[in-house]
């Protein structure tokens, strides 16, 4: 009589663990989008300057990007459950600090802490799913994550608008952060009980020197870019920007030595020998820059330039979010398998058409423009963005060797966030420098901000032209290997809703 070996049945508690990590992902996704809509209220309430407004979003994005790869490695080394709970604890604490901030600089510091804790929490999410669920259930689970991403994209601006507009307990904008407290506490209690611990069998070592060099180079670039306008573009700013290139060169040299010494650099430089991957990283960065510019100047244009309430501005963005979600689902399921990279190129062209239409409407209707008149360009832009964001990662990864897919995926998500941070820093140049201070002084702030918005949108158009050009370096069709791996291997991090 032969005995039949069977694998142990999956833990029935895994669905509660899934709900916890999905809630954490939703918190992060919403927190990225919820803040923009409250910017004018923050400016009025605590006297934040325009550069501080940039740092409120830019600081989060920079800390998030700088810590993503290290956060994933910490989970591999010390345990994904442990790092997830630590990150959620820190994220919840930072949310409370943001909510009680009375000083704009304190708010920026709390946002940087929040971004750093998100970098510790978010990379563990799909790793926990991968270790918790059997292979045959992962397709369903990753589909649920796609729904969470879409829900975060749609609900973030609306939730931010409602919480700001309601002015709960006279707290103005603060509930957009404080709402994370009960969610975070519940997640911690449930996570401690229902999430199983897991580690990587062969985890890469940390590269803290690489993190320090890369972060220093970025700060040397972004600080003068963001503060330079208010300080009159001093000489030290130009020197600091030039110095960032030197520090970045030191980072590349150190990474080469680190790879040769122990095989665990922060960035696997050999990946850039794959032409499609190198172009894809540049593409991700450029696309992040375009998104970083657009979403901030769009909020300032509607609420300060046009004088709309937070709720009015938030509801105006609903057609855009719905178009992104609908087009993203269609591109992955129907279009990309048949047409390949042409879908991404069509998305870039469609998004550019939407931007150009928006520029024309801003000029034609002036300060009398309505939400209904904005709906068409927003739907066109959202459709174009949806065609790009969902299939882009798979297209960039399709020619990367399997053994480097994890490192490559983490780098893609990191560069997307870096691009967003750079775009937010560029707002000083592409928007605020274009605001006619004479018109503002004479009470024509609406016209001044409308003209600056059109100027900034031309910059977005230029960056999208670069995105389109870089798409020609992507493979015409995703390889069969990449398609198969997409069904079984999770990325290091969820794609962030714009």
UniProtKB/TrEMBL annotation:
<feature type="transmembrane region" description="Helical">
    <location>
        <begin position="418"/>
        <end position="435"/>
    </location>
</feature>
<feature type="transmembrane region" description="Helical">
    <location>
        <begin position="310"/>
        <end position="331"/>
    </location>
</feature>
<feature type="transmembrane region" description="Helical">
    <location>
        <begin position="235"/>
        <end position="255"/>
    </location>
</feature>
<feature type="transmembrane region" description="Helical">
    <location>
        <begin position="175"/>
        <end position="191"/>
    </location>
</feature>
<protein>
    <submittedName>
        <fullName>MFS transporter</fullName>
    </submittedName>
</protein>
<keyword id="KW-0046">Antibiotic resistance</keyword>
<dbReference type="InterPro" id="IPR011701">
    <property type="entry name" value="MFS"/>
</dbReference>
<feature type="transmembrane region" description="Helical">
    <location>
        <begin position="203"/>
        <end position="223"/>
    </location>
</feature>
<feature type="transmembrane region" description="Helical">
    <location>
        <begin position="108"/>
        <end position="129"/>
    </location>
</feature>
<keyword id="KW-0472">Membrane</keyword>
<feature type="transmembrane region" description="Helical">
    <location>
        <begin position="375"/>
        <end position="397"/>
    </location>
</feature>
<feature type="domain" description="Major facilitator superfamily (MFS) profile">
    <location>
        <begin position="17"/>
        <end position="480"/>
    </location>
</feature>
<feature type="transmembrane region" description="Helical">
    <location>
        <begin position="276"/>
        <end position="298"/>
    </location>
</feature>
<keyword id="KW-1003">Cell membrane</keyword>
<feature type="transmembrane region" description="Helical">
    <location>
        <begin position="343"/>
        <end position="360"/>
    </location>
</feature>
<dbReference type="InterPro" id="IPR004638">
    <property type="entry name" value="EmrB-like"/>
</dbReference>
<keyword id="KW-1133">Transmembrane helix</keyword>
<feature type="transmembrane region" description="Helical">
    <location>
        <begin position="15"/>
        <end position="39"/>
    </location>
</feature>
<dbReference type="InterPro" id="IPR036259">
    <property type="entry name" value="MFS_trans_sf"/>
</dbReference>
<keyword id="KW-0813">Transport</keyword>
<keyword id="KW-0812">Transmembrane</keyword>
<dbReference type="InterPro" id="IPR020846">
    <property type="entry name" value="MFS_dom"/>
</dbReference>
<dbReference type="Pfam" id="PF07690">
    <property type="entry name" value="MFS_1"/>
</dbReference>
<feature type="transmembrane region" description="Helical">
    <location>
        <begin position="83"/>
        <end position="102"/>
    </location>
</feature>
<feature type="transmembrane region" description="Helical">
    <location>
        <begin position="455"/>
        <end position="474"/>
    </location>
</feature>
<feature type="transmembrane region" description="Helical">
    <location>
        <begin position="141"/>
        <end position="163"/>
    </location>
</feature>
